[in-house]
Amino acid sequence: MATSKTYKSNSRNLTIFLTIKGRVRSIHFSDLGATYNYSILTTSDPNVQAALERNPKFGQAYTLFDEESITTTADQPVVEQEQKPVDASYPKVTRVQTAAQILEEKYGIDPTTISSKTDVLKHAKSLNIEFPNLK
């Protein structure tokens, strides 16, 4: 499980240079505008977090403001979703106009809501039908 950390600076603009994995990187805290007298940086990269917390300016120029655990997809088990069989397939339909006509006549879809291929496919999916050769 990863951890996201937010750091708060004492100024509106703060850029620091840190060595991370042997490379010098510029880390910029985001300015929140004139209303706020500080800037923030949020990262879930453990290398950046470690470098920030090792830096001598930590606790003076900036501090840890918030910490939250985040779940990544790698942490979640893979769940196989069962696919429903398609109710109807129209492999001979290759034109959007023909597919729109089928949706209108057989399924009662309002023709004003079918103006593009995307609309046809969206309606087809909601009706559990397919037009596999639509161009």
- Helices, by number, come to 3
Uncertain residue ranges = none
Rg, alpha carbons: 27 Å
Taken from the alpha-carbon principal axes, the silhouette is: elongated
Spatial strand arrangement across the major sheet: 2-3-4-1-5
Beta strand %: 25-35%
- What is the number of beta strands? 7
Strand/helix succession? EEEEHEEHHE
Q: Tell me the structural class.
A: alpha+beta
Mean pLDDT: 85
Main β-sheet description? 5 strands, antiparallel
The N- and C-terminal alpha carbons lie at a distance of: 43 Å
Helix content: 10-25%
Number of domains: 2
Provide an overview of this structure.
With 135 residues, the chain is an alpha+beta fold. It has two domains: 69 residues, no CATH class; 43 residues, no CATH class. Helix content is 24%, strand content 31%. The chain is built from three helices and seven strands. The strands form two sheets. A five-stranded antiparallel beta sheet has the order 2-3-4-1-5, with helices on one face. It has a two-stranded parallel ribbon with strand order 6-7. Helix 2 packs parallel to helix 3. The relative contact order is 0.17. The model has no long low-confidence stretch (mean pLDDT 85).
